[in-house]
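It is worth pausing here to work through a concrete case rather than discussing structure prediction in the abstract. The textbook approach is simple: state the sequence, then state the predicted structure, then interpret. We follow exactly that order.
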Amino acid sequence: MGVTPKIAPSMLSSDFANLASEAHRMLNCGADWLHMDIMDGHFVPNLTIGAPVIESLRKHTKAYLDCHLMVTNPLDYVEPLAKAGASGFTFHVEISKNNWKELVQRIKSHGMKPGVALKPGTPIGEVYPLVCIFPPLVLIWSHLYSWILLSSFIFCEYRESLCINLRTDTISLD
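Step two, the predicted structure:
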């Protein structure tokens, strides 16, 4: 099976006053998906967007909204994000080790595609049980959270639904 690349720029770098036009600009430039970084201020230090922003953006695009949840309670986000129009729901294996089967079932039952993410330092083997049960999107951070998110690209490896996220988050601008 060949590799089918998917390009998913992080919308966190967008001008939020013009999010719909930024999304259209990314899609017109060749993006396949729109990557939505959702942070709760606990799992990672920043607080970003939530279901209301996804719902607002969904009114302006039919694009695949790839929601990457960097939150301590991902189960609390399943229903709100599904109602808001999220396409994919990527949770962190580090926070979901004890309930990932329930989480995956809920994500699927709400019509979204599940994905699993892991931080640097987390052994890749942590996701093997999930990949063996269902072929998710797999998101790998190149490092811990950066204040500068320049781009985010997702390239499918293995299967169309098993992906690796490669980031250029920390590039020296000096």
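Step three, interpretation. The helical segments are 19-28, 51-58, 75-84, 100-109, 128-133. The chain is about 25% helix and 25% strand.
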